[in-house]
Specification:
mainly alpha; Serine Threonine Protein Phosphatase 5, Tetratricopeptide repeat; 76% helix
Length: 346
Amino acid sequence: MRRTEAKMAARFWVALVPLIMAARVAAQQPPAATEAESQLRAVDELVQQGKPNPALEVLQGLEARNPGLHGLAARLGKLYYQRHDYERAADYLRKAIAEEPNDAESVQLLGLSDYLMGHIADAIPPLEKVQASLPHPDPTGTYILGLCYLQMGDWDKARAALAKAFLVAPDSAAAHLVIAKMMMRNDLAEWAVGELQKALQLDPRLPMAHFILGEFYLFKSNAPSAIEEFHKELALDPLAWYAYEGLGDAYIRAENWDEAERTLKQAIWINPDFSGPYILLGKVELRKGNSDLAAGFLEKALKMDPNNYSAHYMLGTAYKELGREADSKHEFEVSENLHKQKLQTP
């Protein structure tokens, strides 16, 4: 469980920064502009044209000649944020905020930069300031603020922020469900159970609550409890294909191969376009000695998810049992290389 999704959300702002900077071009055209101001407008135009590197070179030249130029620090901070250089971005964004305390964009980017550098406590004050100062703050900042509270152990504030990001009432069953899912994703699974139980007390028929409980029990290697929760989810929604997949996984861990096969096929009948059930079915068929069926399921899975090293490894095993030695060797090599790449990815 990593912060990948949160980082992607924070980095979504990278794509927005050039558009926001460019929107200021028309507003920054005084009748008697200085040469420096003209260059700042040229920088905005370069950013609008999708040319951040030339824009950065112009700004660096301006900084060398006139480091105190109004608006320079904000532009440098935003461009460095766009380049994922969060440490430099934060330095310039602090200068920009000192120059213009009400620059909500710079304040939010400072909070996001601190978050992406792992400075969780430092990220909270600027993100809080944006939430308080804007009538409709950007939901990315609201979401990241919720994750910051979560990592600092402040569950109530985390739930309120995440509820705001997901447009649900902070004391609702849905809010408890949201924070439980975020806890599961952020290595806080032990605390998720209490939130899910509270959600179900408020709404016994809340979709996804039993499913997430099932995920928790799978994480704890408690297959019987996971099976029970997935069945409860399916009683509420018989078309919840993801619950069939979870149930199939739980049956695999319980070594109930026939039930695993049946439920995983049900998942595919509802949603044939997701690789997970095919991979699990490949595992089931290998265990049952049906190497040809296993190969078929795994080949299908790899068409949808070609970088899944586990699927490549199992396909190599199936090919080996089928006597396809060259194909088996190839799949094992691909699996090993993909696994190494995953270990090297932060």
